Amino acid sequence: QVTLKESGPVLVKPTETLTLTCTVSGFSLSNARMGVSWIRQPPGKALEWLAHIFSNDEKSYSTSLKSRLTISKDTSKSQVVLTMTNMDPVDTATYYCARILDYVAFDIWGQGTMVTVSS
Amino acid sequence: QSVLTQPPSVSAAPGQKVTISCSGSSSNIGNNYVSWYQQLPGTAPKLLIYENNKRPSGIPDRFSGSKSGTSATLGITGLQTGDEADYYCGTWDSSLSAGGVFGGGTKLTVL
After folding, report:
1. What's chain B look like in SS3?
2. From the list B45, B47, B97, which residue is nearest A47 (CB)?
């Protein structure tokens, strides 16, 4: 069974750096057909793609957030990590990680983790 | 402001059919596969349609997808109250970030 699970802080202060971890099971991050994306959703709003990473370490970032994001993976731990610097209240959202299959679609999603940015 | 454009809401009666449109451009829908996601209240999105018109295992054939040029459409027949959800289209964008893009979401109400 393929699963992804997000973990990280529930609350961060403005200007702090957010670090989120996506732990995957049921597939390997070294599989050439698969990658992992981070996607967020502010309360009551639409999905927003943030970044992705593939088995060959190919990475891509949202143009509007590129300067604040870093994505990395640890294949041995089956984890993908996203860091976002200089957090602001507008970054309050549920953050999801999702598997990308064949560069086509996000076929399996984690349950999401809600992050609130507040002092 | 989402890259892909969807109607904010659609509604129909149980048993009826509804379509949801998704409009983009040549840098996204026009040159990439479209996927559709269903998000039930309080849950994570779930893949409904991939590669424009394919259904993952377990998705009933009441759900269908199509694409023409820079637009795509999700169709749902035999509407059920359990279909009430937000629906998102998604694809890849070949321009600046070469990453994923989504529509603004469509709230389906089954009257």
Report:
1. CCCEECCCEEEECCCCCEEEEEECCCCCHHHCCCEEEEECCCCCCEEEEECCCECCCCCCCCEEEEEECCEEEEEECCCCHHHCEEEEEEEECCCCCCCEEEECCEEEEEC
2. B45
